[in-house]
User: Fold this.
Amino acid sequence: MFGTAVIVFREVLEAALIIGILAAATRSVPNRNRWLLGGLAAGLAGSALVAASTDVISAMASGVGQELLNAMILGTAVLMLAWHNIWMTSHGKALAISAKSVGNAIQEGRQEHSVLLVVVGLAVLREGSETVLFLYGISASEGAGASQMLLGGGIGILAGVTVGYAMYAGLLRVPMRWFFAATGVLVLLLAAGMASQAAHYLIQADLLPSLAAPVWDTSAMLPETSLPGMLLHSLAGYDPRPAGMQLIFYALTLATIALGMKWANSSHLK
Amino acid sequence: MNFNPNRSAACRQTVTALTTVAMLCATTAMAAEGEYALAIQDHRFQPAELIIPAGKKIKLSIENRDATPEEFESHDLNREKIITGKSTATIYIGPLTPGRYRFFGEYNEKTAQGVIVAQ
Assistant:
């Protein structure tokens, strides 16, 4: 049961942290909760669907369908987060400071909602389908039993959601003048980490070269299985043994979004 | 707008150059590699120790003979992949430096343990 809880926690953690950060980043967007819940529900439904069709997905593209799907999900999430961050840089401050242009803000906010919904849905989809398969495996094998699975799974989900909520609650305490900078940096790191993970899947599928792997090995110092390692992996894409190609993806994403934000900021000030 | 168009052009060029390099590498990455096989039965890997050549990329196919799904995972190799019940999955590994690389089945970690030896 404890083992089940740990594995489920690991899967839930990443999605929970992403949702926590996005929920905080869009605190001023009207009807945010409805959109968040919509994304969550869509992600859960998608998870069941992906889990049920894993056979078909795996067999696609000469056996690397799983990697392609993961890379596509991550790639889409990166684009959405990039857009979110750049949009927030140009409109977010005004949206938070003055409630004068509420009509306008809602108009623009609507677009923002759909982006949020997609990223939340994708995050849940990716981690959720693995959790479903894992729990199915446990319940189907002898010894463990359904009650153990439910208990372990429940504890794991609860623990993951708690960390995600703590992230959300903590961010809300950040003073308003640093708030957008803080969430902006977090979303930026999330996006770069996802890009690196996408590269990782494409390397595993042999669609990209690794370009020297690993570039470094910090697994003894900070293993990915430790709690700090897990948190750093979820928040900033920490990989104890990254391939060169992952680092290129990470750096390019970071630089591209940062430049986009800088550009949006300067054009907005004019 | 105080945006510097020269810098943007330079950035775009850098991105294009990197993409080209990546694509060229991808083509060479398709070159032939050795094929190795593992099987999962009763939540155990067979063989539990697999010897592969160091310094070469290999294709590893893993057949799951159990009815339940398993996740092949290795922190040492930086790989993870779900293999559904009664199916075979393929992953690419390496080139590796000589050494021992532990792997395990995440869904049945107690029994599903193995090691790849690169030499």
